Amino acid sequence: MKSIILTKPGLENELTYIEMPMPHAGQGEVVVKVKAFSINPVDIKTRKGGAMYKRIQDDGPAILGWDIAGVVSSVGEGVTAFKVGDRVFGLVNFPGHGRAYAEYVAAPASHLALQPKNIGFEAAAASTLAALTAYQVLKKYVKSGDTVLIQAAAGGVGHFAVQIAKILGAKTLGVASGKNEAFLKTLSLDTFIDYTKKDFTTEIDEVNFALDSQGGDVLLNSIKKVKSGGSVIAIATTMTPEIKDLASKRNVSVDFQLVESNGEDMQQIALWLESGQIKPHIDKVYGFHEIESAHQHILSGHTRGKVVVQTPTAGNIAL
Ligand SMILES: NC(=O)c1ccc[n+]([C@@H]2O[C@H](COP(=O)([O-])OP(=O)(O)OC[C@H]3O[C@@H](n4cnc5c(N)ncnc54)[C@H](OP(=O)(O)O)[C@@H]3O)[C@@H](O)[C@H]2O)c1
Questions:
Q1: Of 108, 165, 192, 274, whose CB is crowded by the most CB atoms within 10 A?
Q2: pTM of the model as a whole
């Protein structure tokens, strides 16, 4: 099967196309013929030697990627939830070695859900790590009636967070640059703040919860806008004494949260996709041989929604 391995940490040109043996479906696993996978900032961080690199470097050839959508091509022992031919999607082995940049991926069945019939493989692949991150954070901290501040509201995680916070009954305040205002309004964002023109700290009242994906001063300023007793989750930076001190002085809880593979959570995402309550936005779909461009797209820091890559068999539904 065709696969893209990371020969060593570094630039995009360390991503190398090779033929690999077919994966085997172990106990509790299925093999998925991947039609599309999506790219996340963690792919780029790992490619450079950070993030998940230490976890994957000694585990066979390093293959990046965690977000897949495709068709089950074989089923391992103990799997009852899926059968050959099912269309599935999910976040595979995160944190760990997902090996999504390939034509076939062995995935724990417990990390997957059936793909909703009303969406294609690209949309399904887009609705995995980023959607799960938003869901796993918000379901823990947000209740109906809350006001929620979402940094990078137009990005991969952010655009799902806007939609899921709304489903949970929250009022949403989203920060992005002006070119994303109309887009975010289509997602029913309540209040838009253009960070290139305005300081969000002077634009909004205190909120119950803030989701930060920027770190640095943006995180510190987000903490300053959360009510006493409220919470902040940072997804792009670990906690420092400065962050903890500020939060403690304001009686605000602050923590880092890492997304985890979870088939049950994927099923909830699938239900919302099916009902049309959440819609992934795909900024661009790249071909399998355009992986370097797909990485550079994310590196721009200004992706709207998601970047997706089709595998060579994307148009071929047959197994
Ligand atoms: N802890 C976890 O489990 C977890 C999970 C997922 C992601 N993450 C991390 O969270 C971060 C975001 O991930 P992502 O997938 O959402 O990234 P992304 O899609 O690449 O984010 C791009 C977005 O960031 C916005 N942006 C850039 N600078 C901004 C600023 N100063 N203020 C507000 N928005 C700004 C851009 O909006 P404009 O174009 O309008 O500027 C763009 O829409 C990454 O560092 C990623 O590694 C962590």
A1: 165
A2: 0.97
The answer, yes or no, to whether any atom of ligand 1 lies below 6 A from the CB of 302, is: yes
Is residue 20 located within the same domain as residue 120? Answer: yes
Handedness of CA 80, 81, 86, 88 (dihedral sign): negative
Q: For residue 319, is it within any domain?
A: no
- What CATH number corresponds to the domain at position 297? 3.90.180.10
Span from the CA of 214 to the centroid of ligand 1 (angstroms): 7
Q: Can you list the pairs that 11-19 forms with residues at least 24 positions away whose Cβ atoms lie under 8 Å?
A: 12/47, 12/291, 12/292, 12/295, 12/296, 13/292, 14/47, 15/47, 15/64, 15/101, 15/291, 15/292, 15/295, 17/289, 18/61
Ligand 1 centroid from CA 296, angstroms: 14
Residues 22 and 117 in one domain: yes
Query: Given the structure tokens 């013929």, which residue do they identify?
Result: 33
- Ligand 1 atom, smallest distance to 45 CA: 47
310 C-beta closer than 6 A to ligand 1: no
> Is the CB of residue 156 below 6 angstroms from any atom belonging to ligand 1?
yes
Domain extent, residue 113, equals 2-127+280-310
* Any domain includes 122: yes
Q: How far apart are CA 258 and CA 309, in angstroms?
A: 24
- Are 79 and 151 in the same domain? no
In a domain, 317, yes or no: no
Instruction: Compute the distance from residue 156 Cα to the ligand 1 centre, in Å.
Output: 7
Is the minimum distance from the CB of 128 to ligand 1 under 6 angstroms? no
pLDDT tens per residue across all 319 residues of the chain: 999 999 999 999 999 999 999 999 999 999 999 999 999 999 999 999 999 999 999 898 999 999 999 999 999 999 999 999 999 999 999 999 999 999 999 999 999 999 999 999 999 999 999 999 999 999 999 999 999 999 999 999 999 999 999 999 999 999 999 999 999 999 999 999 999 999 999 989 999 999 999 999 999 999 999 999 999 999 999 999 999 999 999 999 999 999 999 999 999 999 999 999 999 999 999 999 999 999 999 999 999 999 999 999 876 544 4
Q: What's the 235 CA to ligand 1 centre distance in angstroms?
A: 9
Domain count, the chain: 2
Inside any domain, residue 232:
yes
